[in-house]
Write a structure and sequence with these properties.
The chain has helices spanning 3-43, 58-101, 109-116. It is an all-alpha fold. α1 (3-43) runs antiparallel to α2. The longest helix has 44 residues, at 58-101. Mean pLDDT is 81; it is low at 108-124.
Length: 124
């Protein structure tokens, strides 16, 4: 393999590692969302009737929801922070390698390789 091909292979590996970290962060967000979804029925008022003629406070549900969400997020915050820092470092490394290779930011490496190879049915 040539040095340029090695660099493109390295770029592909770096991009896959970045996607894997992003999937981990998405998984944490889904886990928090799932836990909050199962917790919502517990946040609702227990009685559907008014006590002593007073209606339940409408903002109380949101306050309880936000407090529970903050607690769940705080449990996962060290892992979220570590993954976010790692993702930022990977983005910087990928951008630096793209600059060295002369790739466009939005251009996938597979499309670049496909454009260099002859189309199906054509001879080189």
């Amino acid at each position: 393999m040539t040095a340029r091909a090695d660099r493109f292979a390295e770029l592909s590996r770096m991009q896959e590692a970045r996607r894997q970290i992003q999937r981990q962060l998405d998984g944490i967000n889904r886990q928090i969302t799932r836990r909050m979804t199962t917790f919502i029925p517990q946040l609702k008022p227990r009685h559907s009737f008014f006590r002593r003629g007073k209606a339940p406070e409408p903002s109380a549900f949101l306050e309880r929801y936000r407090a529970q969400l903050a607690a769940l997020t705080a449990e996962q915050q060290p892992e979220i922070d570590a993954l976010s820092r790692k993702l930022a470092r990977q983005d910087e490394a990928i951008a630096a390698l793209r600059d060295r290779l002369g790739c466009a930011e939005h251009e996938p490496t597979e499309a670049r390789r496909d454009s260099q190879s002859p189309a199906k049915g054509q001879t080189p």
